[in-house]
C-alpha cells in the first residue's frame, strides 16, 4: 500500500509540474501570434525630467515588456525574431539571485528548442535530470520522465536561475530591434481603460513615459502592477525554505530526491556540478524566524531526521552556514482580471471596485511584510 501511495503521489507531482510549464508557454505562443498584427501608429519614449508634461520622442516601439526574467526575456527574443520592435524595461539587469525557477522539465527544454533558445543552457553548468526518487517512511519509488518519443539530448535541466536568465537576456539583446533598459515601471498609462504604455524611472532616476500599442507585464510574483490589472487575491499556504548543499552527491545520478515527510516535504536537486539545492516546504502558520535562529533549530530538530543518511551531514552543515538560508512564499493567485478597470461601470461601481482592490492590496502587503520580518 505504501509503495502504491508513493507511485500515485509521484504521478500527481510530475503531472502538475509538466502541466504548469506547458500552460505558461502556451500563453507565450498566444502572445506571439497576437503580436504579429499590424501596428501602424508611431510610438515613442518621452523624456519627462520633472514629472510634468511630455518631452522629446526618442524611438519607436511596437511592444513594451515589463520585466526581463525567464518569461519576459524569452518573449522579447521570440517577438523580436518575428520582426517586432520590442522595448524591455527591467528593474535590475544584474543576475538574479533566486531560490526558485531553477529547473526545466523535458517539455520545457523542447519549448526552448522551438523558440531557438536552447543554447541559453550552455556555459552555465546546467545539469541533466531524468526524474526523481520519491521517499516515504523508508520506502522508495523511482519516477522517470517519459523519454521514449524523444532523442537522447531531450531531458530535464537544472541550473542557477540567475545564470539562465542572463543568457536569455543576452540572447534577446542580440537582436537589433530589441532593447533592454534598466528602469522601474511605476504605473501603467491608461486612456479609457486601455493601456497605452508605461511610466517609469530609468537607472539615473529620470522620469520617462513609453508608449506602445501592446504592453505585456512579466514582472513576476512580487509584481507592483498586478493590482492595477485585476482583483489580486493572494493566498500564501506555505513557504519554501531554501539553501545550498556542497561536498555531497545525490543517491542516484541525474535524479532529484523528493522526501514526502508529514510535516515538511523536502526536495533536493543538482544546480551545478558541485551544488545541490534543498527546498523545504514550511506551513505559513507560525513560520520560524531566520534572523534569531528559530528556523535553523526547526530544520535541525524536525526536518533533518527525515533526510537521507547520505545527505544528512551536508544538510546540517548547510543550515549552519551563515546567510545560506533563504525564504520565498508559495503564492496561490486566482485569475480575476479587469476588476479594477473602468469597463463602462457606473462611477459608484468603479469606486467600490477600487476600494475593494485597495483593501486587498493592504492585506497582501501586510502578509508579505510579516514574512520579511521573520527573515
From TrEMBL:
Name what cofactor the protein needs. FAD
- Its EC top class is oxidoreductase
Q: Squalene epoxidase domain: which residues?
A: 212-335
Q: Which InterPro entries match?
A: FAD/NAD-bd_sf, Squalene_epoxidase, Squalene_monox
Where is it found, in Gene Ontology cellular component terms? endoplasmic reticulum; membrane
Taken from the record, one Pfam family name reads SE
Q: Name one GO biological process term.
A: sterol biosynthetic process
**How is it placed in the membrane, per its record?**
Multi-pass membrane protein
| One Gene Ontology molecular-function label | flavin adenine dinucleotide binding
Source domain of life = Eukaryota
Q: What is its EC number?
A: 1.14.14.17
Pathway(s): Terpene metabolism; lanosterol biosynthesis; lanosterol from farnesyl diphosphate: step 2/3
| Reaction(s) catalysed (UniProt annotation) | squalene + reduced [NADPH--hemoprotein reductase] + O2 = (S)-2,3-epoxysqualene + oxidized [NADPH--hemoprotein reductase] + H2O + H(+)
Which keywords does this chain's UniProt record carry? Answer: FAD, Flavoprotein, Membrane, Oxidoreductase, Transmembrane, Transmembrane helix
Which compartments is it annotated to reside in? Membrane
TM annotation in the entry = 6-27
Please give the function described in this protein's UniProt entry.
Catalyzes the stereospecific oxidation of squalene to (S)-2,3-epoxysqualene, and is considered to be a rate-limiting enzyme in steroid biosynthesis.
Similarity remark: Belongs to the squalene monooxygenase family.
* Protein name listed in UniProt: Squalene monooxygenase
Q: Which organism is it from?
A: Gossypium tomentosum
Amino acid at each position: 500500500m505504501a509503495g502504491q501511495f508513493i507511485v500515485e503521489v509521484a504521478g500527481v507531482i510530475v503531472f502538475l509540474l509538466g502541466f504548469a510549464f506547458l500552460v505558461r508557454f502556451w500563453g507565450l505562443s498566444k502572445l506571439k501570434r497576437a503580436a504579429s498584427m499590424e501596428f501602424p501608429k508611431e510610438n515613442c519614449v518621452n523624456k519627462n525630467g520633472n514629472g510634468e508634461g511630455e518631452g522629446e520622442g526618442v524611438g519607436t516601439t511596437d511592444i513594451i515588456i515589463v520585466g526581463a526574467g525567464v518569461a519576459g526575456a524569452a518573449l522579447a527574443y521570440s517577438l523580436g525574431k518575428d520582426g517586432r520592435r520590442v522595448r524591455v524595461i527591467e528593474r535590475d539587469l544584474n543576475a538574479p539571485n533566486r531560490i526558485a525557477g531553477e529547473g526545466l522539465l523535458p517539455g520545457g527544454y523542447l519549448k526552448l528548442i522551438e523558440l531557438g533558445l536552447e543554447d541559453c543552457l550552455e556555459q552555465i553548468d546546467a545539469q541533466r535530470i531524468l526524474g526523481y526518487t520519491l521517499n516515504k517512511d523508508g520506502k522508495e519509488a523511482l519516477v522517470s520522465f517519459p523519454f521514449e518519443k524523444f532523442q537522447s539530448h531531450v531531458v530535464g535541466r537544472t541550473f542557477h536561475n540567475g545564470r539562465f536568465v542572463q543568457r536569455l537576456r543576452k540572447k534577446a539583446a542580440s537582436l537589433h530591434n530589441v532593447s533592454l533598459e534598466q528602469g522601474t515601471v511605476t504605473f501603467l498609462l491608461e486612456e479609457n481603460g486601455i493601456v497605452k504604455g508605461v511610466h517609469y524611472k530609468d537607472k539615473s532616476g529620470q522620469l520617462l513615459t513609453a508608449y506602445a500599442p501592446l504592453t505585456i507585464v512579466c514582472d513576476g510574483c512580487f509584481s507592483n502592477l498586478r493590482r492595477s490589472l485585476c482583483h489580486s487575491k493572494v493566498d500564501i499556504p506555505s513557504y519554501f525554505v531554501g539553501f545550498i548543499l556542497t561536498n555531497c552527491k545525490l543517491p542516484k545520478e541525474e535524479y532529484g530526491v523528493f522526501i514526502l515527510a508529514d510535516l515538511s516535504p523536502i526536495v533536493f536537486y543538482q544546480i551545478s556540478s558541485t551544488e545541490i539545492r534543498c527546498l523545504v516546504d514550511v506551513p505559513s502558520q507560525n513560520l520560524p524566524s531566520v534572523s534569531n535562529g528559530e528556523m535553523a533549530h526547526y530544520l535541525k530538530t524536525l526536518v533533518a531526521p527525515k533526510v537521507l543518511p547520505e545527505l544528512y551531514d551536508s544538510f546540517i552543515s548547510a543550515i549552519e552556514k551563515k546567510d545560506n538560508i533563504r525564504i520565498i512564499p508559495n503564492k496561490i493567485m486566482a485569475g480575476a482580471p479587469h476588476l479594477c478597470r473602468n469597463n463602462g461601470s457606473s462611477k459608484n461601481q468603479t469606486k467600490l471596485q477600487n476600494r475593494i482592490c485597495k483593501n486587498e492590496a493592504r492585506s497582501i502587503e501586510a502578509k508579505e511584510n510579516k514574512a520579511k520580518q521573520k527573515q
